[in-house]
Amino acid sequence: MIYTGGEWEDEGPKNNGQKVTPLLGAPAVLSSSPDGFLRMALTDLLSVEFTHLISGLDEKSSSSERHGESVTWIGGYTEWIGSDSHVGVSLGWDWRLEVCPRSGTQCVRFGLPRSNIMLVDAEHQDYGWNRNLHALATVVDALPWTEQTLSAIELC
What residue spans carry the region label Disordered (predicted)? Predict the structure, then answer.
């Protein structure tokens, strides 16, 4: 549902044009669809101010074999939530530390994010799972998340 300045409009593909009048003084929060997703356009997602909720290190060190050598890396997870009028929006992802010859050690997203957001197109149709996750990944990559994440786990 999207707040439209006096009414809530369920924009999902199953909406049937449903409108709900909010309580006076109630904050503009999003509510989920029956499937648990918060549906919004990409432009709406880009206006969300995300706040750091929690970050942590993965308990087990990860390793893999590359050219006969064992490669170990340090990684973790982070979760960010929407603030103000975007209460309920949640975006989380895994990350790992990588050593780059030019810039030193940096924290990078690893894999696709997890979220309760389902992006919709101009016709209010779902992006679909794969397209949605890849679009969310580009949003994550544009967020200034690394410093707060590393501070939360006391690595910087």
Answer: 1-20
pLDDT tens for each residue of the chain, 156 residues long? 443 333 335 444 444 444 433 333 333 446 678 888 999 999 999 999 999 999 999 876 555 555 655 567 789 999 999 987 677 899 999 999 888 777 777 889 999 999 999 999 999 999 999 999 999 999 999 999 999 998 998 765
Residue 47 token pair: 């206006």
Question: Would the pTM of this model clear 0.70, i.e. be above it?
Answer: yes
Rounded distance between C-alpha atoms, residue 132 and residue 138, angstroms: 10
Q: Could you tell me the residue ranges of all domains in the chain?
A: 33-152
20 token code pair: 């709900």
